[in-house]
Design brief:
Strands 1-2 form a two-stranded antiparallel ribbon. The longest helix is centred in the N-terminal third of the chain and has 22 residues, at about 5-25. The chain has helices at about 5-25, 30-40, 60-70, 75-85, 95-110, 115-130, 135-154, and strands at about 50, 55. About 35% of the residues are buried. It contains 7 helices and 2 strands; from the N terminus they run ααββααααα. A hairpin with a 2-residue loop joins strand 1 and strand 2. By secondary structure, the chain is mainly α. The protein folds into 2 domains: about 1-70; about 75-154, N-utilizing Substance Protein B Homolog, Chain A (Orthogonal Bundle), CATH 1.10.940.
Length: about 150
């Protein structure tokens, strides 16, 4: 059973967060991580598995665009996120998974104007809910919503 385009993008977002996390914690390069995911974690013919969960097929091009985009625009993305953190908070103070979610979400909000901002926010809040049971999903929602306001204003 093949994934719908929306499902394939949702899986790509999850994989992008995983890849960004892996790059940060293992100091792996962007192209090596993208290649690993495409070669070993995605399969266009059957469902994939990440973190023990069976997943529909991923939109591999969208995944690669997200990961490359976050890396290429990381200084800009980080500034946009930090602007929306509480006064005195640094990005490094956040959990690495939250950082990866916020970076991917911020990149998508600022560089993928064809996707409605509300859809992007909902997708990353859902991702946060899949990783965290505490206040993190609400934090992600607040930060990305504020960033979306910046996008709308600018």
């Amino acid at each position: 059973m093949s994934a719908t385009p929306r499902q394939a993008r949702s899986v790509a977002r999850l994989a992008a967060v995983q890849a960004l996390y892996q790059m940060e914690t293992a100091a792996a390069g962007v192209e090596a991580v993208i290649r690993e995911f495409i070669d070993h974690r995605f399969d266009s013919d059957i469902d994939s598995e990440i973190e023990g969960a069976r997943l529909a097929g991923a939109d591999e091009a969208f995944f690669a665009d997200l990961v490359r985009g976050v890396v290429a625009h990381q200084a800009e993305v980080d500034r946009a996120v930090v602007k929306r953190l509480a006064k005195g908070w640094r990005l490094e103070r956040l959990d690495a998974t939250v950082r990866a979610i916020l970076r991917a979400g911020a990149f998508e909000l600022t560089h993928h104007g064809e996707i409605p901002l509300e859809v992007v926010i909902d997708e990353y809040v859902d991702l946060a809910k899949s990783f965290f049971e505490g206040p993190e999903p609400g934090f992600v929602n607040g930060a990305l919503d504020a960033l979306a306001q910046d996008v709308r204003a600018g």
